[in-house]
UniProtKB/TrEMBL annotation, chain A:
Annotated NCBIfam families: PRK07314.1
Similarity annotation: Belongs to the thiolase-like superfamily. Beta-ketoacyl-ACP synthases family.
Superkingdom of the organism of origin: Bacteria
Catalytic activity as recorded in UniProt: (9Z)-hexadecenoyl-[ACP] + malonyl-[ACP] + H(+) = 3-oxo-(11Z)-octadecenoyl-[ACP] + holo-[ACP] + CO2; a fatty acyl-[ACP] + malonyl-[ACP] + H(+) = a 3-oxoacyl-[ACP] + holo-[ACP] + CO2
CDD domains: KAS_I_II
GO molecular function: 3-oxoacyl-[acyl-carrier-protein] synthase activity
EC number: 2.3.1.179
UniProt protein name: 3-oxoacyl-[acyl-carrier-protein] synthase 2
Enzymatic class: transferase
Pathway of action: Lipid metabolism; fatty acid biosynthesis
Automatic annotation (TrEMBL), chain B:
Name of the protein in its database record: Acyl carrier protein
GO terms for cellular component: cytosol; membrane
Keyword vocabulary terms for this entry: Cytoplasm, Fatty acid biosynthesis, Fatty acid metabolism, Lipid biosynthesis, Lipid metabolism, Phosphopantetheine, Phosphoprotein
General function of this protein: Carrier of the growing fatty acid chain in fatty acid biosynthesis.
PTM-bearing positions, type O-(pantetheine 4'-phosphoryl)serine: S40
Gene: acpP
Gene3D superfamilies: ACP-like
Species whose genome carries this gene: Rugosimonospora africana
Length: 408, 81
């Protein structure tokens, strides 16, 4: 049996750079930063007082009553999914919903709901706790809401692999279509945990940048002055579709999702394997799965979170698994680290890079790390022909996800 | 003592706030679920908000008897008397 081709026919996003995929992409190409100082009162006590918050508040896109039932991460997923659905031309297309699946994960889920409802419990007692609490905090909530929105009946799934989640969700979508369980999969990731507790937790790990006085310069992957990641929030959703199904309805195609690989380090709960063995296996495995050679890869959207250790481990792995030819970028320099949404938003950037033959820049790369021996698109977007590109996403727990997008 | 109309108006505000019900649709003969589309989770919110607004207790086993706005008005009026 020949394996079906899978293509991307729709994209949607809401990010610190824009309220939709188009404005996010435009801001990326212009090298704008979505990071700002946290003005909330609670931020004053924290060692980290910067974050990349949503550019457009969900209340501008979702009606008040619906929003009462949604964690902010669920609202973001729903906004991105509606855009992707519309973009793919599926609204009113009469799709067979028994052939429609959803894979939307989150790294942390409804933590802000949990914490806010705990405040209510402490202050006013159990009777005041919202009856919507559980569906708002459950980690499958976003996937379930997206599934309900379109009536998906071929399965609704929610992987959780920390910061690899968004890319892992897309990899699951590929498998679902290849195995014949659905024709169309709504896939991606979402996250919204800009709240004192998660920030304090990450800050206690010394994982976050404390460049509080220069928010826009804080996320600086590959730069000597990098001192940790900047927390971001948002969602990215793609529509994956069997190629012949897309062709039959004359859908526009952005790119092929040619291959994917998921590996695990088996090394440490939070430290990446210094040899990068798990990520090398993921990169090589994804290329093999896509049936392309490493030399076809002209661009990589790196996971590069702006932490001292992680960025160079990835570069080392890329050098080994892919070679020296790709032009690398780290769009986290602009939108921060969207945790469970990172791999999805960055996949959209990778898809558009392949589609338009342009690599968005890595801003703040003023003084490159001495060990940086790959070509990074510093400061400015770079035009080049991109037949194939990778998106990397790695997460606490030793999860590695690599996706291969090629020209349609 | 609060009149039936005052209680209905108070419930109407709560219904609009938690469930988006148009105040013009609220009347004593309207069923929460069948006419006003208030689902079970929203009904919990309505009850908790009504307890606070009218300083009454509405036990869970009473809630199932409150089918219409009028049922709720009667209960609240009696409980606050």
């Amino acid at each position: 049996m020949t394996r079906p081709d899978v293509v991307v026919t729709g994209i949607g996003a809401t990010t610190p750079l824009g309220g939709d995929a188009a404005s996010t992409w435009e801001a990326m190409l212009a090298g704008r930063s979505g990071v700002s100082a946290l003005e909330q009162e609670w931020a004053a006590q924290l060692p980290v007082r910067i974050a990349a918050q949503l550019k457009v508040d969900p209340s501008e896109r979702i009606d008040r009553i619906k929003l009462r039932r949604l964690d902010r991460s669920e609202a973001a997923a729903l906004i991105a999914a509606r855009e992707a659905w519309e973009d793919a031309g599926l609204a009113g297309a009469g799709l067979d919903t028994q052939r429609l699946a959803v894979v939307v994960g989150s790294g942390i889920g409804g933590a802000t709901t949990l914490l806010n409802q705990d405040d209510i419990l402490e202050a006013s007692g159990p009777r005041k706790v919202s009856p919507h609490t559980v569906p708002m905090l459950m980690p499958n909530g976003s996937a379930a809401w997206v599934g309900l929105e379109f009536g998906a009946e071929a399965g609704v799934h929610s992987p959780a692999s920390a910061c690899a989640t968004g890319a892992e969700s897309i990899a699951w979508g590929l498998d679902i279509i290849r195995s014949g369980r659905a024709d169309v999969v709504v896939a991606g990731g979402t996250e919204s945990v800009i709240h004192p507790l998660p920030i304090a937790g990450f800050a206690s790990m010394r994982a976050m940048s404390t460049r509080n006085d220069e928010p826009e310069r804080a996320s600086r992957p590959f730069d000597k002055g990098r001192d940790g990641f900047v927390l971001g929030e948002g969602s990215g959703i793609v529509i994956l579709e069997r190629a012949d199904h897309a062709a039959a309805r004359k859908a526009k195609v952005y790119a092929r999702l040619a291959g994917a690989a998921l590996t695990s380090d088996g090394y440490d709960i939070v430290q990446p394997d210094p040899e990068g063995r798990g990520i090398i296996r993921a990169m090589s495995g994804a290329l093999r799965d896509a049936g392309i050679s490493a030399s076809d890869v002209m661009h990589v959207n790196a996971h590069a979170t702006s932490t001292p250790v992680g960025d160079m481990a990835e570069i080392h792995a890329l050098r080994k698994a892919v070679g020296s030819q790709p032009v690398v970028t780290a769009t986290k320099s602009m939108h921060g680290h969207l945790l469970g949404a990172a791999g999805a938003v960055e996949s959209i950037a990778t898809i558009l890079a392949v589609h338009h033959d342009v690599v968005p820049p890595t801003i703040n790369l003023d003084d490159p790390d001495d060990a940086l021996d790959l070509d990074v698109a510093a400061h400015q977007a770079r035009r080049l022909t991109i037949p194939a590109a990778l998106n990397d996403a790695f997460g606490f727990g030793g999860h590695n996800a690599v996706l291969v997008f090629t020209k349609a | 003592m609060t009149t039936r109309d005052e209680i209905t108006a108070g419930l109407s505000e709560i219904l609009e706030e938690v469930a988006g019900v148009n105040p013009d649709d609220v009347a004593e003969d309207k069923s929460f679920t069948d006419d006003l589309d208030v689902d079970s989770l929203s009904m919990v919110e309505v009850v908790v908000a009504a307890e606070e607004k009218f300083s009454v207790k509405i036990p869970d086993d009473e809630v199932q008897n409150l089918k219409t706005v009028g049922d709720a008005v009667t209960y609240i009026q009696k409980a606050s008397a």
